[in-house]
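testing teh design pipeline on a random one, pls ignore if ur not involved
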């Protein structure tokens, strides 16, 4: 196994700074690339278009990231106060995604399949942590991951926390343009990353 510094960077994108594993310090988490300088955006056909990107705008030409942040902060506060309901989650997803999606399966899971204890744990602890991960995507993923295409020899290395942050954004359906009813040509060969 090679050190991260020796891996060919042309075909490999690192979202974490190079590190060498040390058993005596297994608790140390990888640091995102560019962590000190903040989020560096890439808005083109070769990278995932991030919900925190200043290039992501809605019909009124305003970036929705601040509105998304406010919705997630409100939901997190309700989770932390043990007051969040499925209706709160649904309202947050609809506001953030910008459309009224059918989330009946999620509703059945949370309200009917989960036991009272499982539902309480999801609506307080798990959902609160998911809000945190989505809210901090611009810090945890200090740059967008590269899109991986068939026929190209390319890979991406990221931390578990970065992957969790991207999945939290997908859960809340935050990724731009992918929530639209009509997929854009540049994404026709990619799965929709949003859960809804």
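output:
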């Amino acid at each position: 196994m090679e050190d991260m510094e020796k891996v060919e960077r042309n075909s490999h994108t690192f979202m974490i700074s190079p590190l060498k594993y040390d058993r005596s310090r297994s608790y140390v988490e990888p640091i995102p690339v560019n962590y000190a300088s903040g989020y560096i955006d890439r808005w083109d056909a070769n990278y995932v278009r991030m919900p925190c990107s200043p290039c992501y705008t809605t019909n009124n030409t305003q970036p929705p990231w601040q509105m998304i942040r406010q919705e997630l902060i409100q939901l997190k506060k309700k989770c932390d106060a043990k007051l969040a309901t499925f209706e709160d989650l649904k309202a947050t997803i609809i506001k953030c995604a910008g459309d009224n999606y059918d989330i009946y399966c999620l509703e059945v899971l949370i309200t009917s399949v989960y036991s009272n204890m499982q539902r309480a744990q999801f609506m307080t602890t798990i959902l609160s942590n998911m809000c945190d991960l989505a809210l901090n995507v611009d810090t945890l993923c200090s740059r967008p991951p590269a899109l991986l295409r068939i026929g190209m020899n390319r890979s991406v290395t990221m931390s578990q926390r970065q992957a969790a942050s991207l999945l939290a954004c997908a859960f809340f359906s935050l990724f731009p343009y992918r929530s639209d009813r009509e997929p854009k040509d540049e994404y026709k060969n990619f799965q929709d990353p949003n859960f809804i």
